[in-house]
Amino acid sequence: MESFVHLRKGKTPKRVHADLDGLKDDELGRGGFVGRTANMYRRNDPTAYRTVGPLRPTDVLSSELKPADASDAQGGPLLMFSNADSQVLLSRRSEAMPFFARYVDGDLLLFVHKGSGLLETEFGPLRYRDGDWVYIPKACTFRQVPDTENTWLMIQATDDFRVPPAGTLGRHFPFDPAQVTIPEPSPIDDDGRDEYEVRLYHEGGPTSLFYQHHPLDVEGWRGDNFPFTFNIEDYTVITSESVHLPPTVHLFMQATGVYVMNFLPKPAESVPGTERTPWYHRNVDYDEIAFFHAGSLYGIPMPPGLISHAPQGVHHGAPEKARERARRKFDEYDRVDWSVIAIDTRRRLTPSAEILANDLGQHQK
Ligand SMILES: [Fe+2]
User: Is 130 flagged in the annotation as binding?
Assistant: First the structure.
């Protein structure tokens, strides 16, 4: 239950996230963006710091990372970030899996950043393409057959991904589950080989099971636990003319301690004085990962495949220069064309050695 008390002290603009008059808009809020909160109006850019110690934002170009599956068909994805609730991995496979995969520690949610292909699953085949989310239930067996080199952002939860509870917008917005693509059963015949490897990915693994028959041999299925794809083109973006809405309105799927959001092209806020750039914050209760899929920030191209990690409690936000430019160009742009995938986690994420080795080091200068 929220309090009626909402104080206003000192110099504050009348509207939230607007009419800053040179002040820096900084939020100290609980529970992501839905709990008790304070908007603080500062003199200086709160992201202008250098860090000493392990807690710092990292920025990595995923094209610089070398997942084993990029150069070896037998290889697997690269672990980028992990905590007790989740793992965030990168895959860049260009050759068909010579084995079958099964992630036995939790549900998988994959974002197809680049490329297309076929996913053979126990439930039947699923085609995928750029901008698809692919959901694979925990311990479901599948095989990836890419058309060309693929780049996947992979999120593994330790329990099941679910549609967020219906809020004030109802059950079908911004994500309408009726728009998912669900596979039809299509059992695959044995091809004459001696054994079929099903590789189990798990903590302390992998483990391989060898069958003498094709593991994707399901003639039919029923129930409510199945893989699907959903393209971000079908996501219904929520917007407002007079305020930049908090990221929580773009929630797509969630598991315990893991929240996945889509920030997609939309009309820009149009009421003069409205800040179009997300305000500074230190997301007190959540680590944040942003994956830049495509687009630009009011004409400034964003590097596709850039991954940013902001630990909870550490300030982050677009640079002041970008904010000034967005204000200056207010009348030139009436749309935002960014496509960013965001992952928020309740527990702290640990970046892997590969992430730390490839950090662009923007906060260590
Ligand atoms: Fe953030």
Answer: no
Active site residue 244: yes
287 marked as part of a ligand binding site? yes
| Tens of pLDDT, residues 230-274 | 999 999 999 999 999 999 999 999 999 999 999 999 999 999 999
Ligand 1 geometric centre to CA of 205 (Å): 33
CA angle 76, 257, 142 (to 5 degrees): 30
Instruction: Give the global pTM.
Output: 0.96
Tens digit of pLDDT for each residue in 138-173? 999 999 999 999 999 999 999 999 999 998 899 999
Tell me, in angstroms, the distance from the centre of ligand 1 to residue 287's CA.
8
For the segment 185-209, the average pLDDT, to the nearest whole number, is 97
Q: How far is CA 286 from the centre of its chain?
A: 14
Q: Tell me, in angstroms, the distance from the centre of ligand 1 to residue 349's CA.
A: 14
* Spatial distance between the Cα atoms of 190 and 176, rounded to a whole number of angstroms: 38
Cβ contacts of 6 within 8 Å, gap of 6 or more: none
Say which DSSP state 39 is in: E
Does the structure show a pLDDT above 80 at 314? yes
Do 356 and 327 touch, CB atoms closer than 8 A? Answer: no
State the catalytic residue, choosing from 17, 172, 202, 244. Answer: 244
The confidence band for 2, taking pLDDT boundaries of 50, 70 and 90, is low
316 annotated as ligand-binding: yes
Hey, is 237 helix, strand or coil? coil
Distance set, CA 234 to CA 161, 180, 229, 237 (Å): 19, 9, 11, 9
How far away, in angstroms, is 109 Cα from ligand 1 center? 21
Cβ neighbourhood burial of 25 (10 Å; 0-12, 13-18, 19+): buried
**How many Cβ atoms are within 10 Å of 10's Cβ, its own excluded?**
6
- For 271-298, how does the pLDDT look when each residue is reduced to its tens digit (9 = 90+)? 999 999 999 999 999 999 999 999 987 7
What is the 312 CA–ligand 1 centroid distance (Å)?
9
All domains of the chain in start order, with CATH: 24-58+237-358 (2.60.120), 66-232 (2.60.120.10)
Q: For residue 201, what are the contacts with CB-CB under 8 A and spacing of at least 6? A: 76, 101, 102, 103, 104, 105
